[in-house]
Amino acid sequence: MYAIRVEKLRKEFKVQRSREGLKGAFRDLFRREYTLVRAVKDISFAIPQGEICGYIGENGAGKSTTIKMLTGILVPTSGELRVNGFVPYKDREKFVRGIGVVFGQRSQLWWDIGVIESFRLLRKVYRVPEADFNKRLNELVERLQLQDILNRPVRKLSLGQRMRCELAAALLHNPSIVFLDEPTIGLDIVVKSEIREFLKEMNREHGTTILLTTHDLQDIEALCSRVIMLDDGRIIYDGGLEELKSTWGKGKEIVFQFGSPVPLSQLEMLTPDMPVRWSVNAEGSASVWIPRQGDAVAVSDVLSRVVGRFDIRDMKILEPNTDDIVREIYRVGSAEAGGAGPAETGGTPAGREAMRA
Ligand SMILES: Nc1ncnc2c1ncn2[C@@H]1O[C@H](COP(=O)(O)OP(=O)(O)OP(=O)(O)O)[C@@H](O)[C@H]1O
Q1: What digits encode the pLDDT tens for the residues 163-198?
Q2: Which structural domains are found in the chain, ordered by start?
Q3: CA–centroid distance for 173 within its chain
Q4: How far apart are the C-alpha atoms of 203 and 199, rounded to whole Å?
Q5: Ligand 1 centroid from CA 40, angstroms
Q6: Ligand 1 neighbourhood includes 329 CB (under 6 angstroms)
Q7: Which residues does the annotated region (Disordered) include (predicted)?
Q8: What are phi and psi of 310, to 5 degrees?
Q9: Is the CB of residue 15 below 6 angstroms from any atom belonging to ligand 1?
Q10: Is residue 196 a contact partner of residue 207, using CB atoms and an 8 Å limit?
Q11: Cα(316)–Cα(329) distance, rounded to whole angstroms?
């Protein structure tokens, strides 16, 4: 059973164009000119119940537009979509009772009244029975540590406190799907990790499906087994995070700190049969670059050649950084989009092969 199913979903915006100069402005009075902005270009994907899926892409890629269609705020130009079995923009009243939404940069709480009053109002909006509400509220208050802030007006809360309240507000009616748009934006590291832990627990215990939009790749690393990546309104990757890293990660680097400087030639002699690249840095430090190449060389193989030969004082392994990987995919994805057009490259192994080529 899919929680979210999207088939050739498209959204175009008609944007009024203003002509230049006084003459242009005068003409505009009589006949407006429009340009068509294609924000989402025939995307397809399906998310099973209980999955946490990252929905990522650069600014303007089309993420918010998709989320707005999935939550019933926008009507698609064409294509099919079902969320919890509903067509979001049609069955709004029934539909919203099964979903929760958090927009990190916008509040769904009333600014001047106590947090608990907002929660009570939301209970009425979502028509949650009193007993269910109390049970759920107690759970959320405890998990998100809201005890001391329940009676404060939202405007007096810190950003971290407000975000915890936003999450509670979105989950009070126990929705089976939650849309999170930048839920950790602007928060400090401690609050970020508390929120990630909380989301993981919700997902584990209640099987909540989560679609997470974020620019923070650590959110993705901590939460998502799957990522869908958008570029210019198209899906350029849909698959596992690990696969994403192993396919696009460029390799690993081991940095050694030796007791005394080791000449480059001696290091190179250790690995003549390996496609690795040594370099010598200042003050007895040296690094070896291990290219990905289908993991032909394991880090442990390289290490075993070095250990015991030289006096190693310290060592660190630099793993591929997800940020770099994503940038690389954007680069390739965008380049393709500029050519014949990748259309539906996401989701299928063939599509991903096409991208690798
Ligand atoms: N109401 C609108 N009218 C006209 N164009 C719009 C409208 N909403 C979005 N767009 C355009 O559609 C494209 C996709 O925008 P969208 O907000 O979905 O991107 P995004 O991936 O969410 O970006 P961000 O990370 O900055 O939030 C952009 O070119 C944007 O300018």
Answers
A1: 999 999 999 999 999 999 988 888 888 888 889 999
A2: 2-8+47-245 (3.40.50.300), 251-318 (3.30.70.980)
A3: 24
A4: 6
A5: 9
A6: no
A7: 336-357
A8: -125, 160
A9: yes
A10: no
A11: 26
